[in-house]
Amino acid sequence: MKSVILAAGVSRRLYPLTYEIPKCLIKVGDKAILDRQLMSLQSSNINEVIIIVGYYRELIIDHVKSNFPDLNVKFVINHHYFETNTAFSLRLCSDFINNEEFLLMNADVLYPKEVLTRVINSNYNTVLAVDIKPCGREEVKVVEGEGNRVVAIGKELIEDNSLGEFIGVAKFSKEISSKFMNSLERLIASGGNSDYFEAAIHPLMSKHKIYYEDISDLPCIEIDFVEDLEKAHELVKSDWFN
């Protein structure tokens, strides 16, 4: 199975911490966020990794090559990282995914290996890792249908109707993969360069079954703000990371 890590963003909301380093290389505990993800992939026997880079891409490329020489890593460059978002970045690696099953993750999410284990071993072919909790405006929210099915996704969803937060880790089946890439193509063609990739998932949900795995018992956080980083330093002390 292939994996895709989205690591092109500028992370303005973490300025000045990210003036001279990409967010994914910030250390949480004794390891960079990206290192923890790559180690989880390795220990899950996922050795083919596509990383979309942009901001300070040379630092990421050199870091990965130096610290993970045994990983089969392809780097895809988003040269327009200042004015685009994750939908544009993901569309750039369509040829590398090649309509195959793949894992997808944002590079700014702290999570233990157990998250990947649940997603990879899920009974569902296409599945999103969801933290079931009350959500605020900033979280990417999901709405639940019947039988663990997700029927809506996005930041703009009504908070009271939401099941919880999609933490940015997912598995897509071969069947959904091709349709997802086509949806991204339509989104970009219609002017969605600044959209998140979830905007291309949402239109698929009416015709295709996309499910969720509950990971709310695990220490996970998407790191957008300084407060998130401070919380991450506490979460990483959990036994799940040892």
Structure, explained:
It is a single chain. With 242 residues, the protein is α/β, with parallel strands linked by helices. It has a single domain (2-241), classed as Spore Coat Polysaccharide Biosynthesis Protein SpsA, Chain A (Alpha-Beta Complex). Helix content is 29%, strand content 24%. The chain has 8 helices and 13 strands. It has helices at residues 33-43, 57-67, 86-91, 94-97, 113-120, 174-189, 198-201, 226-235, and strands at residues 2-7, 27-28, 31-32, 48-53, 72-77, 102-106, 109-110, 127-132, 141-144, 150-154, 164-172, 211-214, 221-222. The strands form 3 sheets. Strands 1, 4, 5, 6, 8, 9, 10, 11 and 12 form a 9-stranded mixed sheet that branches. The two termini are 25 Å apart. 43% of the residues are buried. The model has no long low-confidence stretch (mean pLDDT 94).
Quick synopsis:
With 242 residues, the chain is of the alpha/beta class. 29% of the residues lie in helices and 24% in strands.
Q: How would you classify the quaternary structure?
A: single chain
- The CATH top-level class label: Alpha Beta
How many distinct helices? 8
Report the biggest beta sheet as strand number plus sense, adding barrel if it closes. 9 strands, mixed
Which spans of ≥5 residues are poorly predicted at pLDDT below 50? Answer: none
Helix content percent band: 25-40%
Quote the distance from N terminus to C terminus: 25 Å
Which structural category do the helix and sheet elements fall into?
alpha/beta
| Mean pLDDT rating | 94
Relevant CATH superfamily = Spore Coat Polysaccharide Biosynthesis Protein SpsA, Chain A
User: From the coordinates shown, what is the CATH architecture?
Assistant: Alpha-Beta Complex
Extended strand count:
13
Task: State Rg.
Answer: 17 Å
Report the portion of residues in β strands. 15-25%
How many domains is the backbone divided into? 1
